[in-house]
Specification:
The complex is a heterodimer of chains A (about 525) and B (about 30). With about 525 residues, chain A is mainly alpha-helical. Helix content of chain A is about 80%, strand content about 0%. Chain A has a single domain, classed as Up-down Bundle (Sodium/glucose cotransporter). In chain A, α1 crosses α2 and α2 runs parallel beside α19. Classes of the chains: A mainly alpha (about 525), B mainly alpha (about 30).
């Protein structure tokens, strides 16, 4: 997720944006800094304690409210499709005579860039194989591979993008068409009028958005750092470098993202993220051509059919009557992913809103939910398919890596392809670029949100957010494993589920009113 | 498992929230 450039254009062009408050007097900023800072300090002082507490709280939430999360994300997908096809589909995100700022091709490329974060590099092979490892206890290997790919596509597909699409649509519609400041809380105040209750709910929504973004991006920093560190381990045949190398990678990353926070490098950042995208695309094509091409294309074709045939009913599956093993898997994967997307939603939503001014609701929704979903299916079909090929042709070594060190799986696979030194270096470079652009963009969005919609948050505020994001990332690195990271993210983003649904109601209500007037 | 009071309270909160959303959707605003 990236290239949120910090230029002056967009949402607030039409907005009566708030007065330029002097840097650190906003109560929202102070509260947000206290909450995220406290989590970071807790994690630094007692990493294990934070991870355990987060896991326990998330477990309780998932057991009691898992059904609600699945119902909510399925509802969001159905509402998105309905909005695109309904009479509201023709409404423009902007004034009626506004034209899109970007060509459709470059708009779609930027959408890919937003969804194509370090996560895809990390999980491309590892996720399908992890599911495969579980499902083959219940099915024959060929069927298990099919199901594993389906579940992976489900996690990264239409449901994820419907969450982004609706959040982005709310921000774009209220920002461009109704001239509200681009804050998460402003649609609530615009829809129900400003009074003590709506002001408070709007303020709390902004706060929850900030916390969800900060923790979500912190998690991505950790994931990216693990990935880069394992790449370096593989490249130079190191082992047992442990926390030492991880820390070095982390500080190099910090050194890379601090300068762009101070200097406005908006176009530079877009170039960096496009470079990362190009590298990732080149890797994708390389694996497809250097690997068993017909096998991978066959897998992708099957996966497309299976996905579109089953995606809607699967969104309602809660695995309630299955054994505990499957129940735990459902919580730690499907539910965790859904809340992870919700954690990213305010951040990605702002980005996709900014690049979509002048598009109709129909174009916006269909582009946002279909484009990246198809791209993800190609990605997992190729990287996952290459993994299945290795396993089903008799290789069990890669499964050992999947079980023991998930962030090394991509590198392990690349080692069995031609030119491993080059491809592994490229993955390291792409992962690094993706994290730098994510952190810089996130610091910008957080600065904007925490200064009541100031479109040019001062360098000082961005730097403070840069430090907090780094500290949160470091805490998650110290926690040492992906499941702890996932729990901390889930805990930070769960309350935001309620905010997104409230925003959807604001949107539907205001659209209805616009048509009636 | 979350049996008992906590589970009930957490789900009642969700039911109330869903009710609130439906009420807000139909509530007339000026």
């Amino acid at each position: 997720m990236n290239n949120q450039d910090s230029s002056n254009s967009s949402p607030g062009d039409h907005a009566a944006v708030s007065s330029q408050k002097s840097a650190f007097t906003s109560p929202l900023l102070i509260t947000a800094l206290i909450i995220t800072g406290a989590i970071a300090i807790w994690g630094l002082v007692d990493t294990g304690g934070l991870a355990a507490k987060a896991a326990q709280l998330v477990h309780v939430q998932f057991i009691s409210r898992g059904w609600f999360i699945m119902l909510a994300v399925s509802f969001m997908l159905i509402v998105s499709i309905w909005l695109a096809l309904s009479r509201y589909g023709g409404i423009k995100l902007g004034k009626d005579d506004d034209e899109p700022e970007f060509s459709t091709i470059s708009w779609l490329t930027m959408l890919f860039a937003a969804g194509m974060g370090v996560g895809l590099l990390f999980w491309g092979t590892a996720e399908p194989l992890t599911h495969f490892d579980l499902i083959r206890e219940y099915a024959v290997p060929g069927q298990a591979a099919n199901s594993a790919l389906f579940v992976t596509n489900f996690h990264w597909g239409l449901h994820a993008w419907a969450i982004y699409a609706l959040t982005g649509l709310v921000i774009a519609y209220f920002g461009f068409r109704r001239g509200c400041p681009s804050l998460i809380g402003s649609p609530i105040i615009d829809t129900f009028g400003s009074n003590r209750v709506t002001d408070l709910v709007g303020w709390l929504s902004n706060l929850l958005a900030i916390v969800a973004i900060a923790i979500g991006v912190g998690g991505s920093i950790a994931m990216g750092v693990f990935q880069v560190k394992d790449g370096i381990d593989t490249l130079f045949n190191l082992s047992g470098t442990g926390l030492g190398l991880t820390t070095v990678v982390f500080f190099v990353l910090c050194a890379a993202y601090f300068p762009p926070l101070v200097v406005d490098l908006s176009t530079g950042m877009a170039k960096l993220s496009n470079t990362a995208m190009a590298v990732a695309g080149a890797l994708l094509i390389f694996i497809l051509l250097a690997g068993p091409t017909h096998y991978l294309m066959g897998g992708i074709t099957s996966a497309i059919g299976e996905y579109f045939a089953k995606v809607l009913p699967h969104g309602f599956r809660t695995f309630t009557f299955m054994d505990e093993h499957i129940g735990n898997w459902f919580q730690s994967w499907t539910l965790t992913y859904m809340v992870w997307w919700i954690a990213w939603a305010p951040f990605v939503g702002v980005f996709i809103a900014r690049i979509s001014k002048g598009r109709t609701i129909r174009e916006f929704i269909l582009g946002v939910i279909l484009g990246p979903t198809v791209f993800s299916m190609l990605w997992f079909g190729i990287f996952g398919g290459a993994g299945f090929h290795a396993v089903l042709q008799g290789g069990s070594e890669i499964m050992e890596v999947v079980r023991n060190n998930v962030s090394a799986v991509t590198f392990f696979m690349l080692e069995n392809y031609p030119l491993p030194m080059i491809t592994i270096s490229l993955v390291i470079v792409a992962a690094f670029l993706f994290i730098v652009t994510s952190v810089v963009s996130a610091a910008f969005v957080l600065g904007m949100f925490s200064t009541e919609g100031d479109l040019n948050p001062s360098a000082k505020i961005k730097l403070v957010w840069g430090v907090i994001l780094g500290a949160l990332g470091f805490v998650m690195i110290l926690s040492g494993n992906m499941s702890a990271i996932k729990s901390i993210i889930a805990l930070g983003s769960l309350p935001f589920v309620f905010v997104v649904l409230l925003l959807v109601v604001c949107l539907l209500k205001t659209l209805k009113k616009e048509f009636e007037d | 498992m979350n049996d008992g009071l906590l589970d009930t309270v957490m789900n009642i909160e969700v039911f109330l929230f869903i009710g609130l959303l439906i009420w807000l959707y139909f509530k007339p605003v000026n």
